[in-house]
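Run log, item B.
One chain of 259 residues. Sequence copied directly from the ordering sheet:
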Amino acid sequence: MPKLWFSLYSREEYKGPEPAFYDPAQQDFAARIEAHYPVIKSELENYLREHHLQSYFNTTMVQQLDSWKTIALKSWTIDLYEHYKYFPQTVQLIRSIDGLVSASFNMLKGGACIKAHCGDTNGIFRCHLGLDIPAQMPESGFRVKDEWRSWEEGKLLVFVDANNHEAVNHSRQNRFIFLFDVIRPEYRRRKHYISSTVIASLFLQKRAEAFVLLYKSPLWLQKIAGFMLVPFAFMAIRCRNGLYRMIYRDHVRPGTRRI
């Protein structure tokens, strides 16, 4: 079992033993997700008739501002209850999947790309479900390690987020996917530690957007900040979920199982 890796504690490219892509058929959640593709896509289309997605916060990962936009339903065990009413059937689906810690809809603008990078941790399977795919490779596609693949509508791409990857959409139309993260079985008992560590990392990334010098701070200082923030992130997740669950209790369908 590979040692848990976090970008928060390293500035070197991840070099783990995992393959570029995994066969979705080997994942117990894949068939359920792909079977619900029409419902997931329909709920996104309904939402977009009256609403807009929000630009991803980390602007260093794109070449064009506002070219990567999202709306999240779950983010590293934080439940975005305020969005549940727009995606009721998708919410029911993700709440039925063991180990799912994040889920969001993602748009990549036509003519845009997401720069090559390593993700936050090797503790998850990151999954892309193609919803609206305007073109295939080489015009539009996704790379993990040295392997390029096309998104396909209703089909999953499964990979380890820590591996170096990038996305391109050189078509003239926007690309939409449903993205979700599932804790790898060998790390399932450390789900809350993984999620809290990534939330601490995202907090520091957001601060660095406002204070660029933080990107140039020594790694040892970043590690100290991370170690200090992780326990606070653990508590903040629970407090936020408890508070928002009460505020938006009418949006949480009775009988749905919590993950």
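Observations after the first pass:
- The CA atoms of residues 205 and 212 lie 10 Å apart.
- Residues 254-259 have pLDDT under 50 and may be disordered.
Flagged for discussion on Thursday.
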